[in-house]
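Weekly puzzle thread! Below is a chain. First person to post its structure in token form gets bragging rights.
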Amino acid sequence: MARKPILSGGKKDEIIAAALKLFMENGYDDTSIRMILGEVGGEIGMFYHYFKSKDEVFEAVVNLFLKRYEDGFGRIADDTQIGPAAQLSALLGWFRSAMEEYNAFMGKSGLGQIGFPQREALHSRTIDSLVAHVEKLLMNAIASDFVHKPEGVTEHELTQFVLHGFAGVMDLINTDGPIQEEEFKRRYSCASVLASSMLGIPAELFLAKA
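Winning reply:
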């Protein structure tokens, strides 16, 4: 018998949210489908109405994790009433928190165990989802003379350089588990100094979050 069409919302979203919580708490291997269903008060048939396997719900969990990440950037980029310094400070605070959560997610959820090509594709997808938000914020900061844009460089090119450069120094995808706290802080401080120099803004905006 063919599976029924997969519907969005409702119990499906509850299952995904419950799976994210349990993957973070227990890891992928130690979270069972029955544990996920126990969180939402459902039966096994309900799970297979929406998902073929635990791998498929894990993919949905990753999508949810990235959407929350992107939505946070979007809210900050849209809030142009607080001024470029406060806006950039809020972005950096969110960025730091998001990277810390991603680092933990790599270790606890099982994301660190997927192959490097898959992690690299996920990393690229994450960066691509942030470009429009960060570019919007930088354009506002440049127009307010708070951020320096080197001559001959477009806002889009500057955004790409900052995002990929910062992510490259943090290098969260080239590890099979979470980066230890001291090493995370060291990489973040290094990336902060480089990015602040490029943008012509005080390094304290970055380092105060470290």
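Puzzle host: Confirmed. Bonus trivia for everyone else. Confidence is low (pLDDT under 50) at residues 1-8.
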